[in-house]
Amino acid sequence: MKVNLRTYIVLFSTCLLILSGCSEQSGAPAENSSSSAMPQPAAPQATPSSASSGRTVIQSIPADVNNDIYEAALADSRRPMEETGRDSGRKPIEVLKFFGVAPGVRVVDISSGDGYYTRILSGVVGSNGSVVANNSGRRSSDEFKAIYTEQYSTYDNVELNFENPEDISLPDNSVDVVLLSLAIHHWHHDDASGEFTPPISITRYENILRILKPGGIFAVIDHAASPGAGRQASDAIHRIPADITISDVTLVGFVLEGESSIHANHPEDDVTIRWTQNPRDATNRIVLKFRKP
Q1: 244: domain range?
Q2: pTM above the 0.70 mark?
Q3: Is the per-residue pLDDT at 252 higher than 60?
Q4: I want to staple 134 with a disulfide (CB 3.0 to 4.6 A). Which of 30, 96, 161, 268 is the partner?
């Protein structure tokens, strides 16, 4: 069959159009398929639970948790009246929830003093938990040992400890929470170290890190100084800035887990002068939660 030149040209042009259309279709997204072509987010990676890892990881208690256990601890008839009168200022329920203190945990209350928190902690952790009431220095004298022995004679889950913080000899990885309330301002400065972290304090933080379980919490409360205030200046007014506290504690390996404003709402407190007890428990305070990795 004979094919003239015009026919060749038509056939050739048709083939080119067909090939061009196929190429465009293969390179363009299909109509109404934009959602399927979007990159999908990677599936979240599961993290080992405390049960699977063999570690006790203390977390903040959810805000909607039943308050009965905390309120019962505050209502314990063994608490002295002068302590119950401080509850509105010290807000122990909010504080302990923030730090993750719950039934069954083991807590060390360093420099526990007269036992404001020790008594409450005893009620919260219950019979399956325990509290180590630590005191040292003048409070480790025979006189104070006798006082504390009598004071806690009816608290079956409270143990007394009179070692210096750097010497607390509890086993490694044996504690869920270490509480240090209104004492860390004594640790951040000494004359020999000037504006650097005192070596004895580093040793204390290292020992606290040692006794805490992985995931355990170092809970710190203290009178706040102005941000950026130096060590010597803040020590002179018995306060400590949050930035120095964070710098010192994280130096040994702790991680800052959170900061609370529970005690940061006292406009009458001048953080540039020495704090006083009048009004009681009305100082602006740092509330810092550190975690052992």
Answers
A1: 53-291
A2: yes
A3: yes
A4: 161
